Amino acid sequence: MSIGEHERLALRQAWQNHCTALNAVVSDAIDGKLGDARDGNELAELVRSIGRISAMSLQHRMDFNDPNFPLFLRQMDDRFRYGGPDNNIAYFQASLNGGATYRIRGNNGGRTMNIGMLWDENITADDDGTFEVTVSAKEQPGNWTPIPADLRGDTHIPEIYPAAGSFNIRRYDWDWDSDLAPGWLSIERVDEQAPAYPAALEAGQFAAQIENATRLFRAAARWWNQRAADVRAHNPVNEITPPSTLPPGVKNYKPPVNAGRPWLFYGIVCLDLGDDEAIVIETDLPDGAYWSFTLYNMWWESPDIMNRQTSLNQNQTHIDADGKARFVISAKDPGVPNWLDSGGPRRGFLHYRWFRPDVKVPVPTSRLVKFDDIAAAMPSDHPRIDLAGRKAILSKRREQLAKRFQR
Length: 407
Known about the structure:
Pfam families: DUF1214
Radius of gyration: 23 Å
Protein name: DUF1214 domain-containing protein
Structural class: alpha+beta
Strand content: 15-25%
Domain DUF1214: 279-358
InterPro entries: DUF1214
């Protein structure tokens, strides 16, 4: 069989359009029309974030975007770092269509999980933890979670939180020391109209997939990076904000609830630290099962989570004798257990999360101090961490994250 000129044209045009879009977004960043980078290092991070979102968009639309044969793409992890991910959550997304019915099978290994709007505590499972969940627009008996009847997950791009996929699963791994099994998930279309086999790839279809990836890339790269700049423009520098059910920088957002209560309360610090400065955060503890403090770079990306202590959750945080947690954000190691390593004098974000609190929703406080004054800001019995102790903590962190991500 020969290659038709219309096929060459379709593929050439789709690829050129993608390269043109990538060049346009990067050019806007370099020219100062996107984001608010103030030096070469911040600009380099911005351009890198655009490249990462481009790679994510292409991979999703080429390999994870068939609603007839959906697959879960794990993202916002050690590979795709955009979007302000919580290091304690594994995020899975699949592209689904509202006219179809899907069956998810899996086992979360005893972890907390939400599948769409359905929480693990409401999922009936076998004795070994294996479960089945039906996903469809029409209500089904047993474990079921809805999708909109008009959903076109393979092409739709939401105006807020533009991302790959249309159906989300989150698995919460907040006990890094546990020996729980990794867990697994599978999904398949099961209604009578489901085809038996996927169609073979053809030129027009693949050109459409590239065009689809280009639309996703444009939306995601601009929205996520401009959101970060908008948050900085509307929040004080180096001051922690009170908890809110509205994510920072997101308009027209309806917070999800479970049993009439919000899933999540958020708060942030817009960081702008010098080498001799630090932020000391003090907080009472919420009464939910999980909470975390996480650092991000200028563009809502996870920094070096393997080699720096950039996040702490309730199982990893030292709690002082008075029942409070105290954190220090700084460029240099202050020798305290709850150090959040900014990676140098820089701007960025601290994002804290109170996950499904019952009654207690604490309001943390923060102070900007000189690095040499950190010790005086701590209780007299606050423990010290020397260099050997820090290396041991980071070595353990690398092993724990490898167990979670390298599967």
